[in-house]
Amino acid sequence: MTHLQAGLSPETLEKAxxxxxxxxxxxxxxxxxxxxxxxxxxDIGFLRTxxxxxxxxxxxxxxxxxxxxxxxxxxxxxxxxxLDMFKNLKATDPGIKQALKDGFPGVLANLDRYGRKILVLFxxxxxxxxxxFVDILRAILLSLESxxxxxxLQVNGFVLIIDWSNFTFKQASKLxxxxxxxxxxxxxxSFPARFGGIHFVNQPWYIHALYTVIRPFLxxxxxxxxxxxxxxxxSLHQLLxxxxxxxxxxxxxxxxxxxxxxRTLLDHAYDEEAEYCPESCTLSVQDLERDLEKNLxxxxxxxxxxxxxxxxxxRPDRTKSDEENTQPLLSLD
Length: 333
Description:
disordered C terminus, 46% helix, Helicase, Ruva Protein, domain 3, globular, 17 helices, CATH 3.40.525.10, alpha/beta
């Protein structure tokens, strides 16, 4: 075991070897081979290239050198293409702070049976008069940057649960295709995290409609890890034991305190008031959407462009029963 593996338990070391093909004897060579590829992308500013940093990208791509480098390049390219998003990327930024305090994201205290950190989003908490979807995305990326420092999570990964209870049609109308693409690029294509599952619960029909918008931009591996549980929490509990879930998700733990993770990041700054102008935020989001429409190219997405046109969501003509709408779209087997 090298010093780069010092933070791993014996169980996680074995998992890294078996699942990720991590070999302590060749670890430094693996890292150097990725580092040597940097010269092939002079258009990108690689602001960090130390061993520990590159290692997390190797783990995220199971030590495939080329794929790890591509992820590393996309990590910095995404930040270059969206400079405004990463200005003042701190928990004390007013928009990020408001999102964090409303539980974007929530982070459960207990890990799942595979050692994965569980993130929860209660979508209805989004106060659109106080912060934007971009602020939520920034808060999630900032949180992941903090958590991915833990080598155990680099190996074991994360699980995401989104509870859509009481999420209104008006709120959903703010989730434009360009904003959703921005989130997919940032989380799926440009961040070295392993997501073992993404679970939707209590989703209304218009969230199913939004899923058809983003589906063409999801990798096959991502699609297979998305589960639509509807109101069927039993199917969620087959994958995540209720003993570790809050009561809102049918679990045995107390109701989730939305400020838990925010207090971890903000510490004494949690209770400090900060001025924030929703109007200027709205303008910046509009500018970002225009930039996305201009600058996002097929090369960066590498996916089919056949998506639903932006606009008002329409209820499907065919009526489905509530029971049909709550069935998982993907098999849980």
